[in-house]
Write a structure and sequence with these properties.
single chain, mainly alpha, Rossmann fold, 0% strand
Length: 66
């Protein structure tokens, strides 16, 4: 398992992703998914997903999913 460091801006960006998608009528069921997405974006890491919420995030942000 890889540890990706988090900071206050990481949490702010996570909330921004959640709010941005809500404005478009998309509800992310687990807010932790937004945090995981931000960590992947910040550290340029691909995400192996097993959750449809990441597909919604990837449609609107440059999240690389496998």
């Amino acid at each position: 398992m890889i540890y990706l460091p988090m900071s206050a801006p990481t949490f702010i960006k996570s909330a921004e992703i959640y709010r941005s998608l809500r404005k478009k009528g998309i509800t992310i069921r687990k807010t932790i998914d937004c945090l995981i997405a931000v960590l992947c974006l910040e550290h340029e890491v691909r995400l192996f997903r097993n959750d449809h919420d990441f597909l919604f995030i990837a449609e609107h942000f440059p999240l690389r999913i496998v």
